[in-house]
Fold:
Amino acid sequence: MQLDDLYRRVIMDHYKNPRNRGTLEEDAISISLNNPTCGDRITLQMQVEDGKVKQAKFSGEGCSISLSSASMMTEAVQGKTLEEALALADQFSSLVKGEPAEFEDYEDIEALSGVCKFPARIKCATLAWNALRKGIEQQQ
Amino acid sequence: MNVTAIREQFPILHQEINGHPLVYLDSAASSQKPRSVIDAVMRYYELDNANVHRGVHTLGSRATDAYEGAREKVRKFLNAASTQEIIFTRGTTTALNLVASSYARSVCGEGDEIVLTPMEHHSNLIPWQQVAKATGATLKYIPLQPDGTIRLEDVEETINERTKIVSVMYVSNVLGIVNPVKEIAAIAHRHGAKMVVDGAQSTPHMRVDVQDLDCDFYAFSGHKMCAPTGIGALYGKKALLEEMEPIEFGGEMIDHVDLYESTWKELPWKFEGGTPIISGAVGLGAAIDFLEEIGLDNIEAHEHALSAYAYERLSAIDGITIYGPNQNRVGIVTFNIGDVHPHDVATVLDTKGIAVRAGHHCCQPLMRWLNASATARASFYLYNTEEDVNRLADALHQTKEFFGYAIG
Structure:
């Protein structure tokens, strides 16, 4: 097990310079989730227009894996329909289980495939995506 | 104390993790088990296994002797006056819940107060929250000093005539400090309150004398002191246990059963409904023998020295924050390195074969008090060495390098 399997350059880049970190206007969907085993917490906000994610932002605290995953997720779902966003969440679940997954429009995410070798960190990677699922459920 | 010889007795320690010899620094979560404990549990199942307090047959007698023999070992280990005061439980959590659900709910009412500290483990916090909700009692907290310690004058301020119960951890599982529970018990008693001690982190590491502490209840877990998981005990003063109602009903705990009414066995069995974890009690007895042979005083001295050494080595790392004072630490050093998240620290250490805990350590209120969402914790036991500390310190330097940019 090598550290570089997990901490790839693109992950560290998202951790160091998270995209879409911040908050949206009041009318946005807002979901707060935490990881009760470790104390990580995330608030995801989404603006949905015409069935599409116009914008997504996140705030909260977490490790490099949970924050980089949140950063990538908010970029990946921008402009996607809710169905497409859910499909991405499914793809992501496969990815961190070590199953084949493809992210054509947003290849950064594939850097998180190394998480499958670190079972204790899977929950970190999926926190933001679980928030996304909840948000979409709320909207639908 | 010959640590090399002690290490030889722990089979699990002699393996490689991710290509490195294992350095196990998570004993505060759960300790490893020596050969003598593993063998005692195995021998019990190979030779003596049967249900207790029932069979007329030989195996039934052997199992009962083994189980009750372990109770006597616990009694002696804690210096309780009688085995009637030792109730086997699943661990500290179950023991504290027993006191909360039985004793506390019967004595607390509207306007009464239960006194805790903000550093308590969730298991010595949530049971009392539930009591407060059910009875209308109020929770009050002894404030902490900036270094996490408790001042007796603050204890005096917090406890009053309305206080029914004071419940405090003997040793903090995050800060590693020893709380003055004997002095707190004296103050509690002066006001007519009962004193509960959470002994999860003290019992494995230091000599405990419940009569000297004069606490009313004392809870601990076996698995943090070389015994199997699933076994622990509650000590309670006999007079209090006698007036308490059981909270689990069924086989094993009854005297006479009628269609509409039943009566309970005498102490301690009235609190032990159902077939108990007999093999766990046997393992706990073997663990007590093991620890007594080495000597609790020797173990305590070893861990103090090791914690002081760890404090010295770790505090030399640039950007590290170590939580709690550098005094009398009971085998626990909790820290953060710059902005590196403790999860990331623990993962990096794991790739180097070093096991530490990362997270809130079941102490979310204390984490908020420390202004940290999570921390990393290295905890030591009798089998740890200065070499383990050196490996930790070196790996933390590498962690810092790896995440270097994230700091400051």
